[in-house]
From TrEMBL:
Residue ranges of domain Protein kinase in the record: 1-185
Gene Ontology molecular function, alphabetical: ATP binding; protein kinase activity
Disordered: annotated span: 244-274
Annotated signal sequence range: none
InterPro entries referenced in this protein's UniProt entry, alphabetically: Kinase-like_dom_sf, Pkinase_fungal, Prot_kinase_dom, Tyr_kinase_AS
Pfam families in alphabetical order: Pkinase_fungal
Domain of life, per lineage: Eukaryota
Descriptive protein name: Protein kinase domain-containing protein
Length: 274
């Protein structure tokens, strides 16, 4: 993705579980299906202002209609949502099947129609702001937990409130006393906000975090947890007892029925590959 963006000036715009293929040994991966990709005019401005992608994995900003165009940061957030979605279904955590179904429906399937437009992302934004991945039930693997918490901090900065002038004045005083030493300032909210905004533009940091998390080969040998039967039973119960509106496996964009077309919500135009 980074090579395509930096060298070919192409933005993928449809990061999803079905478009990321991983080899059986877990050592190789492929990003496929570039149908919705677009040339980038400059570092952050695609030529067309439109929402595209697979609904479950689109950024909260795009789903909420807060973004004027699809940016690289939206693709990065989609990678985060894919990782969390797979974790909920197959990863090591202590959530009950009912809680998994609730999170899948609220964070990834939820959609409502407002003035003829499909809107979603409310729960995604709330989860990011509250740093939901820090919940002890969410991830039991220590190495994966650290990665997800850092990844969440990175993509969530887009939804955090910017520090006030008073906050910055106070921070400047503290930073001066500490001689602007990052090692001493990394717990300061203003430092974290500015640093993660900076890292959002340069993907080297999150790339290194992934490399660090996978250096220990023993961390790559965990078998996929099969929760299919439990989740199916919990989903049926969830459907009976009440649920929000949902759009499952819906891909939106100019080559399919658009994200703003209400009739496109129930359509399953894209199937996940495993």
């Amino acid at each position: 993705h980074q090579v395509a963006y930096d060298e070919a000036k192409i933005l993928h715009r449809d990061i999803s579980s079905g478009n990321i293929l991983i080899s059986e040994d877990g050592k190789s991966g492929f990003l496929i299906d570039w149908d919705f990709s677009k040339p980038v005019v400059d570092r952050e401005t695609p030529r067309q202002h439109e929402r595209t992608g697979t609904w479950q994995f689109m950024s909260a900003k795009l789903l909420l209609g807060k973004a004027t165009c699809h940016k690289r940061a939206d693709d990065l957030e989609s990678f985060f949502h894919v990782l969390c979605w797979v974790l909920l279904k197959h990863g090591p955590h202590s959530l009950t099947a009912t809680k998994v179904v609730e999170r899948l429906n609220q964070n990834y399937d939820y959609v409502m129609i407002s003035e003829g437009r499909s809107i979603g992302g409310t729960h995604k934004e709330t989860s990011l702001r509250s740093r939901a991945m820090r919940d002890p039930e969410m991830v039991s693997d220590v190495c994966l937990k650290k990665l997800l918490v850092d990844f969440e901090d990175l993509v969530a900065v887009r939804y955090d409130h910017a520090p006030s002038n008073e906050d910055r004045e106070q921070y400047d005083k503290i930073a001066a006393r500490m001689q602007y030493d990052d090692a001493l300032l990394d717990r300061q909210p203003v430092w974290k906000y500015d640093k993660f905004l900076e890292r959002l533009e340069d993907w080297d940091w999150i790339y290194e975090r992934f490399c660090e998390a996978t250096r220990d080969s023993s961390q790559l040998s965990d078998a996929r947890i099969d929760r299919k039967q439990q989740l199916e039973a919990a989903y049926v119960k969830y459907m009976v007892t009440g649920r929000t509106e949902g759009a499952r496996n819906t891909r939106t964009g100019s080559k399919k029925r658009g994200a703003d077309d209400p009739d496109s919500r129930p359509a399953s135009s894209k199937k996940h590959r495993g």
